[in-house]
Every structure is written in structure tokens, then in C-alpha cells.
Amino acid sequence: MTTARLSLLTAAPDLYAPMLALTKAAKKNLDPALVELLQIRTSQLNHCAFCLDMHTRDARAAGETEERIRLLDAWEEATGYYTEQERAALALTEAVTVLTDGFVPDAVYDRAAAHFDDTALAHLIAVITMMNSWNRLNVAARTPIGGLLPGTAAPSADAAS
After folding, report:
1. Is the pLDDT of residue 143 over 80?
2. Is 57 exposed, middle or buried (0-12, 13-18, 19+ CB in 10 A)?
3. 161 pLDDT band (50/70/90 cuts)?
4. Where are the domains of the chain?
């Protein structure tokens, strides 16, 4: 078990609240189950156990199936489990999260743009970007699993003590 370095909520509430507000705004008008899939995939890529735990629970609460959650790490090979729209959003998630070439390839962007209008696409990019920010903060702080209640900014009983 990893020992926490610091509590983000306690140490920087002035930073925490605006990030929560931006995250909420990013999710606006997007399918909650899709948002959770993208947040899980981002967290898998960034190795953020805290966020994986939280968003796996949130995905279940949004109606996501165990099978699709389990297969998410291999979504490209799991044909028939994700819609073309979800697959385009997952490809965009990977391109934005892992900037191996220093940019998001046109083909990946165009694939997502074929499934989402400009407003939805902007929100998708914002969700992915905010999740990357949360991952980096939580990995750096070593936020313990279970530190917040799923779907909220409220500390769990374990984290509050």
C-alpha cells in the first residue's frame, strides 16, 4: 500500500474547487457512461490507482457493465464491445493522453469529429485533459485509493480521519 504524500483537498482547496468546476463543465451534455470510460482509460494510461478505483465505481453507477470495464485496457482488440463512437472517443483519449509524437494525429481527430459535433468534441477534449490533470495531481500526491467518495468531491470516512 502506498503512503499518501499530501491531501490535495486540504493543502490546496483554492486550486481544488476550480478544477472540480472545470471538470463538471467539461462533462456537460456528454453521456455519463462514456465519460467514465474515458476517465478510466486515461487513468489506466497514467497508472493512477486512485482515479481508476473512483471512476470504475462511477462507471458502474452510470450503468456500465463489468465486462466492458474489464476489457477497456484492450478496447481495440475487444471488437463488438464498444460502439464506433466510443472507439473514436477512446482513440482520441489515447492520443491526447500519450503525446508520443507531440500532437494528436489528424486521422484520430477526424475519426472523433465524424462522431461528435464541435461542441461535444470540445467537451471530450476537456474531459480528457481534466482527467490527465487529476491523474498527475493524484499520482504526485500519492492519493490513497478510497480517498474520496465516488462521484463526489467529499472525502470518504477513511480519508477524513
Report:
1. yes
2. middle
3. very low
4. 16-147
**Which one-letter amino acid corresponds to residue 69?**
I
pLDDT of residue 155: 46
Q: Is 35 helix (H, G, I), strand (E, B) or coil?
A: helix
Query: Which distant-in-sequence residues (6+ apart) come within 8 Å of 82 by Cβ?
Result: 37, 68, 75, 90
CATH architecture observed for domain 16-147 = Up-down Bundle (1.20)
The burial of 34, by beta-carbon neighbours within 10 Å (0-12 exposed, 13-18 middle, 19 or more buried), is given as: buried
CA–chain centroid gap for 11, Å, is: 23
pTM, to two decimals: 0.88
- CA pseudo-torsion sign 91, 76, 35, 121: positive
Positive or negative: CA dihedral 120, 124, 129, 131 = positive
Beta-strand ranges (E) seen in the chain are none
Separation between Cα atoms, residue 92 and residue 113, nearest integer Å: 10
Dump pLDDT digits (tens) for 85-120.
Answer: 999 999 999 999 998 777 899 999 999 999 999 999
